[in-house]
Specification:
By secondary structure, this protein is of the alpha/beta class. It contains ten helices and eight strands. The chain has a single domain, classed as Alpha-Beta Barrel (TIM Barrel). The two termini are 15 Å apart. Bound molecules: 2-phosphoglycolic acid.
């Protein structure tokens, strides 16, 4: 199914100081001058969320975090809860990004617990899944990703607003992207898994991994691609806006 309203979300990762919020404000201004039918979000480092929410207030750019703890509060030094993100002004949160799964040992069960925390806090989770190159080369990509969907998406998501982001690990930050055929195959498999598990026939399935102004239109036109999760190209307003306009 083609979704006419796309969801284009930037992930700044561990980049950005207060001065860089000028880029986010430039996105806000451009969308005020020439509105888009698409949903647009930017996920900032936790340190910038409150200020970003303040500076983007009243505009079309939704504010998100990049991870949250599964507990609402407690003795978890260095962590940020979903409730805190919401309190700071976020409405979205990325969970289960492959950089968290691989670098911080997050399991599907950890991700599912974070999704539940996000929902309790009133945040819309963007749940990331994706296979490694080794898994793809072994012919296991669809099995791995649908397994992550099954393990990372709790029953609590039924009827709730959320998104899934398919991000092949080997495409993130590498400049490599899957073929249109590979994207279509995976998004169709994710849709089947979403419908079977949660009856989620319209939940947006974003594609992520080296999306840029040049390849965005082609990737976003693929069946069941409901938007994009954009890393590097979301740091500069011009690049990010070009992707928003390509959708
Ligand atoms: P990239 O990152 O666009 O820089 O490849 C995407 C992501 O990790 O969300």
């Amino acid at each position: 199914m083609k979704q006419s309203v796309k969801m284009i979300v930037g992930n700044w990762k561990m980049n950005g100081l207060a001065a860089d919020l000028a880029q986010a404000e430039a996105v806000k201004t451009a969308l005020a001058e020439a509105p888009t039918a698409n949903r647009v979000g930017l996920c900032f480092p936790a340190t910038l969320i409150a200020q970003a929410a303040w500076r983007l207030k009243g505009g079309a750019v939704e504010v998100g975090g990049q991870d949250c703890h599964a507990a609402a509060s407690g003795a978890f030094t260095g962590s940020v809860s979903a409730k805190m993100l919401k309190d700071a002004g976020a409405s979205l949160v990325i969970v289960g990004h492959s950089e968290r799964r691989a670098g911080f040992g997050e399991t599907d069960a950890d991700v599912a617990a974070k999704v539940e925390a996000a929902l309790r806090a009133g945040l819309e989770p963007i749940v990331c899944v994706g296979e490694t190159l080794e898994e793809r080369d072994a012919g296991r990509a669809v099995e791995v990703v649908t397994g992550q969907v099954a393990g990372s998406l709790p029953e609590a998501l039924r009827g709730q607003a959320f998104a899934v982001a398919y991000e092949p690990v080997w495409a993130i930050g590498t400049g490599r992207t899957p073929t249109v055929h590979q994207v279509a195959e995976m998004h169709a498999a994710i849709r089947r898994a979403l419908v079977d598990r949660l009856g989620a026939a319209t939940t947006p399935i974003l594609y992520g991994g080296s999306v840029n102004p040049k390849n965005a239109a082609e990737l976003l036109a693929v069946d069941e691609v409901g938007g994009a999760l954009v890393g590097g190209a979301s740091l500069k307003a011009d690049d990010f806006l070009a992707i928003v306009r390509a959708a």
